[in-house]
Specification:
Helix content is 70%, strand content 0%. Helix 1 (4-17) crosses helix 2. The relative contact order is 0.10. The longest helix has 21 residues, at 76-96. Residues 187-203 have low confidence and may be disordered. The chain has 2 domains: 1-103, Rna Polymerase Sigma Factor, Chain: A (Orthogonal Bundle), CATH 1.10.1740.10; 106-209, Orthogonal Bundle (Arc Repressor Mutant, subunit A). The chain is built from 10 helices and no strands. The chain is an all-alpha fold.
């Protein structure tokens, strides 16, 4: 198995050799990641798909203006995620100037084998509540938590996407997790939903390095 760093270097090298063919490889490698992260910024599936598509379009247009040496040095994955984040923030600013609700996070459906009706109801409620509290985090904390604990990116890449130092990225992750635990486990949250407090899933615990 090749390392992620080697894979990213191969993608950059492919872009230098042939921009169109190389970009097709980039899309194949990262479109699912872009869509998944876009769900943390979008209100619905269609909005996430549109955000991911706009990200790829902006990336391709940027690459058309880059010299080969700059493309060769690209860290493709965090570069794409930075474009995604900036595009989402621009959209959020535009939406704030128009009437209507702000974007909210709605986690994607779990593709696991068909659970029973009771399990489906319980899973949907957990996803809804987790989505609600993620949407209440500051944007940098939400992005940091999603990239680190949902997508499993290393903290160095999280920092690159956020445009900050690694120590600052770790702080965003830690504070975001603490706020999630507070929101998911607090008595006020339980009263608001009419259900017992929910603990954060294992995937969101203990990984800030």
């Amino acid at each position: 198995m090749t390392s992620p760093i080697r894979d990213e270097a191969a993608l950059a090298a492919g872009l230098v050799r042939d921009l169109d063919a190389g970009f097709a490889q980039v899309v194949h490698a990262h479109r699912d990641l872009l869509y998944s992260v876009a769900r943390s910024f979008a209100r619905a599936d269609a909005d996430a798909e549109d955000l991911a598509a706009e990200t790829l379009l902006r990336a391709y247009r940027a690459l058309c203006g880059y010299p080969p040496e700059r493309i060769a040095d690209l860290a493709v994955r965090p570069w794409l995620l930075t474009i995604l984040r900036n595009t989402a923030r621009n959209r959020a600013r535009d939406a704030a100037r128009r009437p209507g609700p702000p974007p909210a996070f709605e986690p994607a459906e779990d593709p696991s084998p068909a659970p029973g009706p009771a399990e489906q109801v319980e899973a949907a409620e957990v996803r809804r509540r987790l989505g609600d509290v993620l949407a209440r985090l500051p944007e940098a904390q939400r992005t940091a938590v999603v990239l680190r604990h949902v997508q499993g990116l290393p903290t160095t890449e999280v920092a690159e996407v956020l445009g900050c130092k690694v120590g600052t990225a770790k702080s965003h992750i830690s504070r975001g997790l603490a706020r999630l635990r507070e929101l998911l486990g607090g008595a006020a949250g339980a009263a608001a939903t009419g259900t017992p407090p929910v603990r954060p899933t294992h995937a969101l615990e203990g990984r800030t390095r």
